[in-house]
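re: that chain from earlier
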Amino acid sequence: MGVSGGADSVALLRALVLAGAQPVVAHLDHGLREGSAQDAAWVEALAGQLGVPCHGTRVEVGAVAARRGWNVEDAARRVRHEFLSRTAKAVGASAILIAHTRRDQAETVLMGLLRGEAVLSGIPPVRGRVHRPWLDVPRADVEAFLRSLGQAWREDPTNADLTRTRAWLRGEVIPLLIARFPGLEGALARLARLSREDDAALDDLAARLTEHAPRTRQPAAVLRRHVARALEGAGFSYHAEHVEALAAALGAGETAHVTLPGDRDVTATGGRLHLRPLAWPVPDFPPPPGWTLRTRQPSDRMRLPGGTRKLSDVLTDAKVPRAERDRVPLLAVGGKVQWVGLHPPRWAVGAREAAGVAPAPDPLHTAMGEALALAEEAAGHGEVPVGAVVLGPDGAVVGRGRNTSREHGDMTRHAELGALRGATRTLGTPYLTACTLVVTLEPCPMCLGAALEARVGRVVYGAVNPKAGALGGVSDVLAHHWGHRPEVTGGVRAGEAARLLRQSFQAVRRRGQEDGGP
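^ sequence. v structure.
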């Protein structure tokens, strides 16, 4: 256990010995003030009187801080933690005890409030091997216990230095507050405990966010923790305002660019964070004479079907992160951009023909066409117009299905299930990991559950299903962790799928009106 010689740690040491425990004393002389060596000798003598082992060392923390570029307080904390961990390992201790009390907790919470910290969780009672068993014990009880034993302790003279924020709070501010609010320390300690519990619950919700969970439907508190976790996972330093800006952009479905310490650019756009450099397509065809491969320039413009636009606007509309815009390859003739390496690549009007490049066939567009044909067939039988196909590993259709619920009097006869059953029969396996399910309407939870059970590698849908879709809401299927996470693409030929649905339902309403007429 860490023993500084102050009342808190001396009291904890005496209590452990009285309880029959076998503590090992660890004392670090920070070398920051005169008399620190006397404190070290005093602690060693106390340990000898109590018959417990004592491990001590001296580290010139001021020199460490100057060498590493840390402030002295941070350096002292890091050096102390390293010393206690090393000592615990050397003696085979499973826990490191620190004697912080409720007064320390109250001071820490109040300091956090004054600094504007987002979460006033204070000092944790347990962190890794470090335990603070007296964190809810009043300082007055500690001193009373020592006086009952006739035990002296050492006073750190820096506690009387009111130029130090903690000493000022302890000596000037908190006594004034306690005079008006006697339960202040307990209230601040309770605030810390509740904040830790709330923060842990919100952090758990942030950790559960899947790539499919729409950020615009998440509480702001969860998004802030989601952003903080992502930045920490990438090893980035950040400030609270960076987290707030990125989380706000995710929640609003907007774009925000921030520059973190170390000149790291991070972008939130399209409901996602972009922390690392992205891979952009390069031309897979020989450029015509006069076309130059380069990156953007300020004067670049591009002729599109709707008119000529600045390239910067094109990249903004494509939600290209700001830090990536100078990395996107393009082909240009002077300042006239002909081709941009986006996903998918963007061509200027007439540029594809000039390059002699035929439009690449889109297998998903073709597959959705077949699913739409099945949906029309379903509509012809009075069913909800939904069709589905499954593409095998080679891109060929291995399963087809359409809604047949009314036809069979079975509301589970959905298009997706029919296509999945057909694919498993064709391939001779229940697992479709290398397959793609293509369906005209966003799958309902039942159908998506079947796709997950079949381990479908990719789900592609056309129109959004706001009533029973399973790919968008907070409580929907893919917003949770199921072990298998298919790639999801929505909006393929969405207009055609939605139009077919509207026409079908309008026909149903007309028939209903005709049947109910005179």
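The chain has 17 helices and 19 strands.
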